[in-house]
């Protein structure tokens, strides 16, 4: 909300990003971000692991918010019209609950990777590990195809996830 009050909020993107197609079908994985993230709390059975995960999530969020204040950004490209009525309703909802500000690092990307890591560690089935890994990847890249984030935001979200894993290494948690 702070960013909306600023007179000028820049956008950082590369010219080749204008060639990224707007693919409405990617709204489906994008809109599953909340259940994907919150499902991790039901997946972790050990209290120490859960506390560790909460620390990672808090760190990731606090660092990202600090960056939003220090380097505010907004998304630049206009979204094309959506023909499919179901997907159009998803974009309408998204427009009401999400803004084009606070872009880098992308929390969707950071939490997609963090959540996928938890699912892949906690579930035993190889099929489910693959399923959650693919779901997390689709969720992360969906930010580019539904024009919610620029590539720098995607990279920033990935880096924040990796930094979180370095600062909170798994070996010390369990």
Topology:
Layout: H1 27-30, H2 33-43, H3 47-70, H4 85-97, H5 107-122, H6 126-145, H7 151-167, H8 170-173
Helix pairs in contact: 2-5, 3-5, 3-7, 5-6, 5-7
Q: Cα-atom Rg, whole angstroms?
A: 17 Å
Question: What percentage of amino acids are in beta strands?
Answer: under 5%
Shape field: globular
Sheet of most strands = none
Structure description:
This protein is mostly helical and 174 residues long. 63% of the residues lie in helices and 0% in strands. It has eight helices and no strands.
Question: How would you sum up this structure in a few lines?
Answer:
By secondary structure, the protein is mainly α.
Characteristics:
mainly alpha; 174 residues; single chain
């Amino acid at each position: 909300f702070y960013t909306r009050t600023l007179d000028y909020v820049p956008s950082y993107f590369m010219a080749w990003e204008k060639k990224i197609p707007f693919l409405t079908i990617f709204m489906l994985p994008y809109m599953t971000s909340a259940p994907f993230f919150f499902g991790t709390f039901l997946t972790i059975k050990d209290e120490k692991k859960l506390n560790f995960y909460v620390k990672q999530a808090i760190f990731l969020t606090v660092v990202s918010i600090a960056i939003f204040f220090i380097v505010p950004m907004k998304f630049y490209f206009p979204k094309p019209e959506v023909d499919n009525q179901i997907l159009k309703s998803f974009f309408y909802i998204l427009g009401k609950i999400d803004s084009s500000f606070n872009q880098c690092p992308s929390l969707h990307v950071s939490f997609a990777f963090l959540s996928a890591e938890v699912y892949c560690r906690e579930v035993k089935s190889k099929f489910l590990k693959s399923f959650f890994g693919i779901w997390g990847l689709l969720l992360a890249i969906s930010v580019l195809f539904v024009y919610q984030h620029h590539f720098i935001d995607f990279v920033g979200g990935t880096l924040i996830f990796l930094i979180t894993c370095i600062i909170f290494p798994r070996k010390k948690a369990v």
